[in-house]
Amino acid sequence: MSKRHLAPAEITEYSIAVGVQKTQRPNLEVLLMAILAGMYIAMGALASSTASHAIINQGLAKLVAGAVFPIGLMFIVINGADLFTGNCLTIVAVLDRKINLSAFARNLAIVLVGNFLGAVPLAWIEANGGMLNLSNGLFGASTVATAVAKTNIGFGQAFMLGIMCNLFVCAGVWMIYGAIDVAGKLLAAFFSILAFVVSGSEHIVANMYYIPAGIFAKHNPLFVEIAGVNADQLANLTWKGFLLNNAIPVTLGNILGGIMIGATYHIIYRQARGISLSHG
Predict the structure, then answer these.
(1) What is the CATH number of the domain that holds 42?
(2) In which band, very low, low, confident or very high, does the pLDDT at 275 lie, cut at 50, 70 and 90?
(3) Can you give the pLDDT at residue 274?
(4) pLDDT tens profile 224-266
């Protein structure tokens, strides 16, 4: 009987090899793959928001959104692309001394920029393509309300929600690494991202769609009126508000969450077992 998945120790070894491979590619290749990933995540976010925007029950709305959103990670896993949150697992290659910290940081920086360049144009296309007028403007109002909520949470809360998000995502990516066939990889992607969306935690690349979409949508007075947000809340829905109130803390939290997953498995299967790091 053929093997259906890798054991946890084997996943650790595989993730080290993936980390080396990810950081040894030309910068342009990394950037283009990251742009694709940003676009794919935005597509998943757009579709999930469309599916759930008119559902009044918040639990049900999150469940519906969570059932649709994973298509973004599925695109990335099967088609090939570089996602910032998943690339945080490259830390295992750093801890194994296969790559240095500067290569890790450079890769994350390029991928973060590429994800942004891929996600924001999707939000602009949506806002200018009439899609936000769905349900007599309720979709546009929901888009504004979501973005306002994300740009009005405190730095500490955004940081914590960023950590929580990447615990879900990187645990899911770890399972994807462990799955051998396509069906297994898709199932791992589906359930882990479903759980992340339902949790209400913060994903920086998803927010590269959600918040710009809200910034574009707020210029329609009807959307703002239906959303019922006040002037003080709306004042933070700017590019500066996105950067300071959400992007910085969520990015830092996402990095820490990913490091927590990768470093723990490295300690268990490489360090605690007494494997010589200098000799692999």
Answers:
(1) 1.20.1080.10
(2) low
(3) 64
(4) 999 999 999 999 999 999 999 999 999 999 999 999 999 999 9
Label residue 4 by pLDDT band (50, 70, 90). Answer: confident
* Distances in whole angstroms, Cα of residue 145 to Cα of each of 39, 216, 268, 274: 22, 12, 43, 51
Q: Is residue 1 part of a domain?
A: no
The number of domains in the chain is 1
> Would the pLDDT of 276 be above 70?
no
Q: Is residue 55 part of a domain?
A: yes
User: Quick one: how far is CA 15 from the chain centroid?
Assistant: 18
Residue at 129 is within a domain? yes
Q: Is residue 3 part of a domain?
A: no
What is the extent of the structural domain holding 117? 8-279
> Looking up tokens 């090939």, which residue turns up?
80
Over residues 34-45, mean pLDDT: 98
For the chain, the first-to-last Cα distance in angstroms comes to 30
Tally Cβ neighbours within 10 Å of residue 200: 12
What are the two backbone dihedrals, phi and then psi, of residue 5, each rounded to the nearest 5 degrees?
-160, 160
At 280 the pLDDT is: 43
Distance CA 50, CA 252 (A): 29
Q: Please, is 144 exposed, middle or buried when counting C-beta atoms within 10 Å of its C-beta (0-12, 13-18, 19+)?
A: buried
Structure tokens at 91: 């830390």
Q: What is the Cα Rg of the chain in Å?
A: 19
DSSP string, 123-182: HHHHHHTTGGGTTTTHHHHHHHHHHHHHTSS-HHHHHHHHHHHHHHHHHHHHHHHHB-SH
Q: How far apart are CA 75 and CA 186, in angstroms?
A: 9
Indicate the angle between helix axes 204-217 and 101-128, nearest 10 degrees. 30
pTM across the whole model: 0.94
Alpha-carbon span 50 to 247, nearest angstrom: 23
